Predict the structure.
Amino acid sequence: MIGKKEFNSINNLLNQKLKEKGILIAVHRGSPGGNIIENTIPAYKAAIQQNGDILEIDVIKSTDGAFFTFHDGQEKRLLNENDNIKTMSSTKIEGLTYLNAIGHKTSYKVERLEDVLEVFKGDVLINIDRAWDVWPELLPKLDQHDMVNQIILKGPVVKEQLETLNSYKTKYMFMPIIHSLNEIDIVLGYQNINLIGMELIADSEQHPLFQDEVISLIKNNNLFVWANAINLDDDIILFAKFDDNTSIIHNPDLGWGRLFDKKVDIIQTDWPAILTDYRNHKIQ
């Protein structure tokens, strides 16, 4: 059972899915391609149709306090805009339209978070990323949707942000991004956070966070282990190169298979359909 007993009712959907599937598939920004754009409702629908278990969505706040699903820093590629989206008003953002996968202009606009949440209210897990700097404003907005059992917050190990979660009345599921052994100890020290798992960042097999005893330590605290198999570029290594590229270009046993061997509970990917087939083969 993942998480603390006092939060069982909140964590029930997550625990049901882990029990049913063994390893869950988190889909990075949904499944974009062609005229379907990342971090939009169509991309999230595509991810679910490819048997994704968790939708990973990026959230930003406009200058006038509206929340949108967008990964800041991608403005030029996706919107042909040079300014960071966080410096824009909601009116400005809603006047923008996306470029598709081949750079052609579309009529599709940046989604409001509230619209995304309403579409996927039900039984899909939603991992909200990159919004930790605006949690004090975001959390009350999330409360309005009554989706505490679906939403997993993700963030770095930062004292101010951990204290926000520790004191906030609604105990949203939380998964910290862990870069060191010390960060594990820090997070475990907060008693009123609904801690459910940890994303481990390890650049090699020699990294302390890659070691089996560390993974066992996390699991012994009733927490899941999340490994990121996505490839952001040729240089960034998120989990010892056991990633999507290795799995697809070479052999899934050399990539995703190693994550299965490490007893990882959740794998984030850009290729949910292929990983689903592999998961079905591995656990049949």
Q: What stands out?
A: The longest helix spans residues 8-21. The domain at 5-69+113-283 is CATH 3.20.20.190 (TIM Barrel). The chain has a mean pLDDT of 97.
